Amino acid sequence: MGKSVLTFDQLTDKIIADFSWRRKELTLLKNKIPESKNSLQNAMIRATMPLLYAHWEGFVKISLSYYLEFVANKGLKHKELKNQFVALSLQKKLGNLKENSIESKTQIIDFIFDRVDKQSNIPTKNIINTKSNLKYDVLEEILFIMDLKDAHFESQRDLVNDLVDERNHIAHGEHKLVDYPTFIEFFDDIIALMEHLKKQIENSAILESFKKPAPNNGSSQITGLVEKV
C-alpha cells in the first residue's frame, strides 16, 4: 500500500483519495445510463452492478487495511489497546497453545498477563479478508475486529446482502434484470455506506477509539468529530 500510515493526516488523505476515485468512476458510469428503459439501459445496468459491488468490497478492504496499519504503527502496549487488537497481536502465539484442559487454559491466561506491559505487534497483512463475497456476516466480523460495529451498519444488512446476490446473478450469467429505479437506490445507498465507513474510520482514529478506556479517567475527551469531506 506504499508509504506507511503513521499519522492521522496520512490516514485521512489515503482514505479520502480512495473513496473519491471510486465515487467518481461510478458516478461517470451512472450518468451514462439512459433513464428511459431500453436495451442499452439494461446492458449498462448489468455492467455497472458488478462494478458497484467491486468498489464497495475494495473500499472496505483498502480503507480498513489503512486503519489497521495506522493502529499498528502506534506501537502501543497491550494494556493500552482494546481486546480485539490485543487478540490480533497475540493470535499467532496463542494459536500454538491448546485449550483442552484447565492446565492449558491457565497457561493461556498466564501467557496473556505476562505480555500486558509489552509492546503490541499487530499484523497488517491478510487481516481484512472480504472473502471475495462480502455478505453481511463477513462484514460484521471485519467490523468487530476493527471495533467499528454500529447500529447503522446493522440496519444496512439487507442492502449488503442484496448487492452480493445481484452481483452473483450477473457474474453467473443469469438473465436477471435490475430496473433503473432499483439500480439508483443501490447506487445511492452503497455510496452513502462507503461514506459512513469513511467517517467511522476517521472518527475512530481521531478519538483513538482503539485504546482501552483508562479506569476512572477524569481527563476531558476529544469532542470534535471529523466533518464530511
Automatic annotation (TrEMBL):
InterPro entries: HEPN_RiboL-PSP. Pfam families: HEPN_RiboL-PSP. Residues 18-203 form the RiboL-PSP-HEPN domain. This is RiboL-PSP-HEPN domain-containing protein. It comes from Christiangramia fulva. The lineage of its organism: Bacteria, Pseudomonadati, Bacteroidota, Flavobacteriia, Flavobacteriales.
